[in-house]
Specification:
The structure holds two protein chains of two kinds. Chain A is of the alpha+beta class. Chain A has one domain: Mth169, Chain: A (2-Layer Sandwich), CATH 3.30.1280. Chain A has four helices and three strands. At the A-B interface, helix 3 and helix 4 of A face helix 3 of B.
Chain lengths: ~100, ~270
């Protein structure tokens, strides 16, 4: 009886989900070769303003705070989030940086 | 099925528009149309109550992340099973403008291998950049697979308005040619942008308003029962919705958009 209670306690979510907080910075950018109208328009104006700008590429950065058991799990989740929602593989590349939150 | 018994669901969520116009267009053709909020559908109702489904235009969830992406993933998460059953029974789904973006993001279009778990195409930001609202000409390219255009003769030029900032249809660069071939092989290409005389836009503004690859306006799935397009048929349902209607020689009652809804209803009437 006591043993089974002990096992239950160990399996209970409060004990299992002792989690760390991680800061993710996920950057979603256009794949090379895809036209980037926003970047091109910005580049044109920067040139008008006198800067010797060659190219401008616009990307999106998502700053996310995430709970996970380990860095590895956080990486897995980040990858999943990109594939599921944040990037469209037809036109987007993604990359991310993960830091433990202090 | 009798026309009066046909029930069409026009979905709504924060940021959709023209749902009222879509409902009115359907009702003008004597079918039942209902505007249903997706939360209502997820909590109390079932997709299977309806014979057809319309994702209207608009800017669902503020077009955040990518136009249509959030709504598409929301639907898949909450109503995925029902939606799959709906598709498997070949019940028609129409995606207009933002609705087309949703269907692409949900992997329902082009659907080369049934429903895809990731988008196989994209509707990228317009080129020239920015939001564009104008009347365009589109040419019918389908050979009869798409059930939404069966009343339209091949190569007929229609006039409809577009209103979007992310409508540049594209495939992954490395698969562009191959994907286009598949569209033709499977008869999935439905409309291409052209000018008044039917000359293709060739990627150039204004005939092609967004720089879309191969002047693609809209495509259907393998079965021809799911169809998405950027222009708004419900905003060209009546002749008087055209900006210059009083200056035109002919003055019929209806505009070109009616043909899309009519084709859908004809299909449903014939379906057992």
């Amino acid at each position: 009886m006591f043993a089974s209670l002990l096992i239950k306690a160990f399996k209970s979510p409060e004990i299992q989900t002792y989690a760390m907080r991680y800061q993710l910075k996920i950057e979603v950018s256009l794949k090379p070769g895809h036209s980037d109208p926003e970047g091109e328009t910005t580049a044109r104006l920067l040139k008008e303003l006198g800067y010797k700008v060659e190219t401008v590429n616009v990307s999106k950065v998502y700053s996310i705070v995430l709970e996970a058991q380990s860095r590895k799990e956080a990486e897995m989740k980040a990858e999943e989030m990109c594939k599921k929602l944040l990037a469209n593989p037809t036109k987007d590349n993604y990359s991310f940086v993960i830091e433990e939150e202090k | 099925m009798k026309r009066e018994d046909i029930k069409v669901c026009v979905l709504r969520v924060g940021g959709t528009n023209c749902d009222a116009e879509t409902k009115r267009s359907l009702e003008e053709l004597s079918v039942q149309a209902e505007i249903v909020h997706v939360n209502e559908l997820a909590k109390r109702r079932s997709l299977m109550e309806y014979n057809a489904l319309v994702f209207p235009g608009g800017f669902s969830y503020g077009d955040y992340v990518r136009a249509g992406a959030i709504w598409a993933k929301w639907i898949l998460a909450k109503l995925g099973k029902e939606l799959k059953a709906f598709v498997e029974e070949n019940r028609p789904i129409l995606g207009i403008c933002n609705g087309f973006q949703v269907l692409v993001e949900a992997g329902l279009l082009p659907g080369f291998e049934e429903i895809s778990s990731y988008p196989e195409a994209a509707l990228a930001t317009n080129f020239p950049p920015g939001y564009n609202c104008r009347w365009v000409y589109i040419k019918h390219e389908n050979n009869g697979k798409c059930i939404f255009t069966r009343k339209i003769p091949k190569e007929k030029v229609l006039r409809m308005p577009v209103a979007h900032s992310e409508g540049r249809f594209m495939f992954a660069k490395e698969k562009e040619k191959q994907c286009l071939e598949r569209l033709y092989e499977n008869d999935q290409l439905v409309f291409r942008y052209c000018d008044k005389n039917g000359e293709y836009g060739d990627g150039r503004f204004p005939a092609n308003p967004n720089g879309s690859f191969h002047d693609i306006v809209g495509i259907c799935n393998l079965e021809g029962t799911i169809f998405g397009l950027m222009p708004h048929p419900e905003r060209s349902f009546y002749w008087w919705q055209q900006p210059d209607w009083t200056r035109q020689e002919r003055m019929p009652q209806y505009g070109d958009g009616k043909l899309i809804f009519e084709s859908l209803i004809n299909y449903l009437e014939k379906k057992s």
